[in-house]
């Protein structure tokens, strides 16, 4: 109960001090996403590859707004400030913003795709591209000319160009990372775009591959036998079917309720970058005899080739390390604090649902063509604009409480680990 109250107090203080700026940043992110999707759809009607290269900027605009919102409330997080005070010079703050943005791209894209936001952006992009493409086709029919564009209406399929985009974007991002100290600061924008491009297209390739495998599995005879067996057992023993459906419902609902707040807390941990890294596992102990043979063959490669492969591997691992560190930090905070945060986030989701329901009742019934098709996006944006600052304040308050729990545990464990006969100076050094 005390942990929940701490989270509420911190979130309330952050919201009271920063809600106008949080609201402005969220509105800027929504506006940037809308403008980019409109532009990408227009370009995609002419060339699907070019339009798809613009689409990651829509997600990146939301990420920039999210990182800015989390960093805006950074000065009010007292527990985090004790570990890592805010830098006073503007150059260091800009560098921290760029580092947080680059580190947050991978987890944010994963979160964005898992909760269907990426599908919504793709649908909005496709609708815009189809609209422009239909206009081009109509103009071509009237003028009796060939229709402009590549005929794909923005749709991008798996081709060698798709794989080449992933490889080239990743390679350029790697080169920029190695030459970061020698390049101007504005190259950070290019690095963020390249990171977003290769992650987006890699997610596209992975999603298409998973859908293909899932479709192949569903058409196998074994799956048909399994479905028939389940239907036979369910018809013969109805309570078993009720139990099975209840388990499926509970897993689906509980997964969304628990994983969504934890995903937000993980993104906060990646952005703030204060997670506790776990103890490294020696590489020589992994894989047993097979791993030893592979390491032996790897060491037989030329030194220059091993150095380049090591750099690429380290660059890949560095993208997942902050995510793992944030998860470890939440694990060490304990189930009581994390459970309290999940409860608070669930209450916020319920309030958001009630607010949306109440807003629709307040607006009332209107004509579809003359009202809803004109004002629907503005009306449906009212509740998110009001809820999002509260969400960010709650996530920041939860993360600050996690940091505070970890600091208090370390402070409580430090004196007990010292011998009773330790000198006062040694005890002071241990406490420091």
Structural description of this entry:
The protein starts with a helix and ends with a helix. Helix content is 83%, strand content 0%. The protein has 432 residues and is mainly alpha-helical.
Into which percentage range does the β-strand content fall?
Answer: under 5%
Structural class: mainly alpha
Task: Give me the Rg, rounded.
Answer: 26 Å
Output mean pLDDT. Answer: 76
Distance between the termini: 30 Å
**Which bin fits the share of residues in helices?**
over 70%
| Broad shape | globular
* Weakly predicted, low-confidence segments: 274-281, 416-432
Please, how many helices? 15
Order of helices and strands: HHHHHHHHHHHHHHH
- The total strand number stands at 0
Described by strand count, sense and barrel closure, the largest sheet is:
none
């Amino acid at each position: 109960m005390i942990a929940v109250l701490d989270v509420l107090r911190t979130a309330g203080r952050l919201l009271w001090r920063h809600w106008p700026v949080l609201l402005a940043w969220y509105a800027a992110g929504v506006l940037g996403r809308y403008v980019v999707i409109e532009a990408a759809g227009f370009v995609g009607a002419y060339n699907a590859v070019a339009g798809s290269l613009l689409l990651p900027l829509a997600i990146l605009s939301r990420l920039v707004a999210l990182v800015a919102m989390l960093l805006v409330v950074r000065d009010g997080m007292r527990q985090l400030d004790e570990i890592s005070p805010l830098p006073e010079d503007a150059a260091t703050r800009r560098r921290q913003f760029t580092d947080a943005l680059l580190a947050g791209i991978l987890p944010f894209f994963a979160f964005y795709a898992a909760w269907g936001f990426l599908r919504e952006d793709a649908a909005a992009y496709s609708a815009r591209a189809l609209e422009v493409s239909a206009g081009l086709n109509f103009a071509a029919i009237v003028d009796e000319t060939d229709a402009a564009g590549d005929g794909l209406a923005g749709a991008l399929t798996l081709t060698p160009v798709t794989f080449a985009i992933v490889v080239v974007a990743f390679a350029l991002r790697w080169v920029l990372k190695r030459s970061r100290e020698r390049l101007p600061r504005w190259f950070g924008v290019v690095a963020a775009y390249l990171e977003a491009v290769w992650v987006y297209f890699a997610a596209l390739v992975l999603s298409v591959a998973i859908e293909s495998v899932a479709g192949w599995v569903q058409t196998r005879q074994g799956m048909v036998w399994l479905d028939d067996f389940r239907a036979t057992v369910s018809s013969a023993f109805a309570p078993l079917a009720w139990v099975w459906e209840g388990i499926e419902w509970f897993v689906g609902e509980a997964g969304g309720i628990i994983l969504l707040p934890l995903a937000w807390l993980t993104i906060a941990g990646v952005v703030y970058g204060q997670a506790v890294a776990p103890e490294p596992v020696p590489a020589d102990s992994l894989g047993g005899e097979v791993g030893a043979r592979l390491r032996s063959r790897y060491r037989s490669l030329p030194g220059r080739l091993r150095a380049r492969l090591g750099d690429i591997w380290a660059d890949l691992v560095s993208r997942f390390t902050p995510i793992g560190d944030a998860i470890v930090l939440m694990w060490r905070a304990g189930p009581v604090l994390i459970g309290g945060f999940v409860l608070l986030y669930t209450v916020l989701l319920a309030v958001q649902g009630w607010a949306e329901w109440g807003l629709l009742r307040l607006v009332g019934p209107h004509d579809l063509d003359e009202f809803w098709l004109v004002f629907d996006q503005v009306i449906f944006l009212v509740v998110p604009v009001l809820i999002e600052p509260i969400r960010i304040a709650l996530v920041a308050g939860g993360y600050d409480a996690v940091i505070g729990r970890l600091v208090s545990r370390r402070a409580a464990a430090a004196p007990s680990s010292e011998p009773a006969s330790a000198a006062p100076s040694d005890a002071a050094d241990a406490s420091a």
